[in-house]
Specification:
seven-stranded parallel β-sheet, three-stranded antiparallel β-sheet, rod-shaped
Length: about 425
């Protein structure tokens, strides 16, 4: 009942994880706080994460070919050239979009899905120009969801359906740059996320932003087994506004001064762990492409085991950084011992403990049942008698013996009396 009560407010606190409203520009203006690369194209030069997080180095091994990333968001737009050939399929689960998931949903956040998709697998505008995603050869699946009044389907149902559709359409990675701002989730998500895990899908979720009211991670970032991504500024320090904290954070990635391609093709600079998550999703795609034999558990394990700890970390994992800053080059190339379980936890075990699920199957019958003969019919109960009348037992064992003793005593007394009289009569002297 406590969990249900907590979920009652979820619909009022749904949020896309944007730290601040971005300013749309035809081309980004160079920022002195952002490291400048040797790229001649100003857009590529703005993408500091490509060098700082080992992504260009990882491209020497793979660019994500053969991997599908499902973007569960407001929809990836059709028009921008950066998405040409990138989106393999899509669907709408909100009831407000189009069947292919390519019509942005929402009056305020409609560009959000395009920004996220461009960070994960944007194609650029040319070989060395325009915004490029972390895994530019990976394919995208566009699943449009709606928030609040922009959807006719309840949000919890949308997410459950979106996850299942992504799995059924061969997603290798699912990216969810959204939060409910509460730690609990609807029970329908149990089966949906288990379905993803059972089908070897990596699920990556944004941690949330303080600027949007998330002081601690909320669902789906609290679901065991997902890789939750925290955010850092360009210097690698935990972002004050564009990140949050929580024990479920696995790794951290850039969440400030990011770029995104809007639905109309314009570039924007924006903040939020909504952007950190697809950067990590793109790196996960590079790992899956370079190591197609790895299952989802070992992909996640590579990402956290090769992450770089920061001097600001107080523990491992840390509430702000998780296991550290994600490192694409190390995740792709470093030898990491294999694991047999998801290092981010087991949803199945959580369900067993907290949903009061059956601990095991019912015991099997080992022998045939024994047939017992029926008991004989019960005797009819005696009719009730008056308590003032003697019963059979009182007559037999009480009244009759007492009567016999009384008669005997009387007879003895009479005999004794007669004998005394005879003796007296015999001994009396005759009168003279």
């Amino acid at each position: 009942m406590i969990r249900r009560a907590a979920l009652a407010g979820t619909a009022l606190t749904l949020a896309l994880l944007v730290g601040a409203a971005p300013a749309a520009t035809a081309a980004p203006i160079p920022d002195p706080a952002v490291p400048v690369t040797t790229d001649t194209d100003p857009v590529r030069a703005e993408q500091y994460w490509l060098d700082d997080y080992g992504i260009r180095t990882a491209w020497q091994t793979t660019r994500g070919a053969g991997v599908r990333i499902a973007i569960i968001d407001t929809g990836i737009a059709r028009g921008p050239v950066e998405f040409s050939g990138a989106v393999a399929a899509g669907t709408d689960v909100s009831g407000a979009g189009t069947p292919d998931g390519r019509t942005p949903v929402g009056a305020v956040d409609s560009n959000h899905g395009s920004w996220v998709g461009s960070l994960a697998a944007g194609r650029g505008t040319g070989p060395d120009t325009g915004m490029i995603g972390v895994a530019p050869d990976a394919e995208l699946l566009s699943i449009s969801v709606g928030f609040g009044s922009s959807a006719t389907v309840p949000f919890t149902e949308q997410i459950a359906e979106a996850v299942r559709w992504a799995v059924d359409n061969d997603a290798d990675i699912i990216n969810m740059s959204l939060t409910t701002n509460v730690p609990d989730w609807d029970q329908s998500w149990d089966d949906a996320f288990l379905y993803a895990y059972e089908n070897d899908v990596v699920v990556i979720v944004a941690a949330g932003n303080r600027a949007s009211g998330t002081t601690r991670v909320g669902a789906p970032a609290t679901i065991p087994g997902v890789l939750t991504v925290g955010g850092v500024d360009p210097s690698g320090r935990a972002s004050i506004d564009a990140s949050t904290q929580g024990i479920t954070i696995g790794v951290s990635a850039p969440s400030e001064q990011l770029l995104g391609v809007s639905a109309d093709g314009r570039l924007v600079r924006w903040d939020g762990t909504s952007g950190a998550a697809p950067i990590v999703a793109g790196i996960a795609a590079l790992v899956r492409s370079a190591h197609p034999d790895l299952d989802a558990n070992n992909v996640i394990n590579r990402l956290i085991k090769t992450a770089k700890p920061t001097p600001a970390m107080k523990a491992t994992p840390d509430l702000l950084y998780g296991y550290g800053l994600v490192d694409a080059a190390a995740a792709v190339s470093t030898t990491v011992p294999a694991v047999t379980s998801n290092p981010m936890g087991s949803l199945e075990e959580w369900i067993r403990l907290y949903r009061r699920a059956d601990s095991g199957p019912a015991p099997e019958q080992t022998s045939a049942p024994v047939v017992v003969d029926p008991l004989p019919a019960a005797e009819a109960a005696p009719l009730p008698a008056s308590p003032l009348l003697p019963s059979r037992d009182t007559l037999l064992y009480g009244t009759l013996p007492l009567l016999m003793l009384t008669v005997t005593a009387i007879l003895v007394a009479l005999g004794v009396t007669a004998a005394v009289r005879r003796i007296r009569s015999a001994t009396r002297t005759p009168s003279r």
